[in-house]
Amino acid sequence: MKKSGLIVLILCVLLLVSCSSAPASDAEVEELIRVDLILPTGPVKTSETVPFEARVTQGESPVEDAQEVEFEFRLADQVEFQRIEAKHEEDGRYRIEKAFEVEGTYEVTAHVTARGMHVMPKKEIVVGDLWRSELR
């Protein structure tokens, strides 16, 4: 009796293993989203309105359906920051315009959530007439 029970158990295990889905390595892996953070070129003066853009792609295709695209601005070495929601334009481009009231070096971070992924590219921008020795 014990032998027949063991044989039935082994057959059940073999049946379950043979009916399982394809291994995970055969599953298609979704390509990561890419965010190109585009800052103003040239010097930025205080009170001057300048554009900021995030180009969001997945593979070769623009991402038109991002759930969140925000720009975060933080004056270097400060705790406080400002976040501004970007507007979708076309071809995966999300854009804002901003003016700075205080000179300094700012960290600009784009927060992008799209297709189950979150990406946060970061760059720096200098506002005002800072000398090179004042830059970090």
From TrEMBL:
InterPro entries: YtkA-like_dom. Pfam families: YtkA. It comes from the Bacteria. Keywords: Signal. Residues 1-24 form the signal peptide. This is YtkA-like domain-containing protein. Residues 33-111 form the YtkA-like domain.
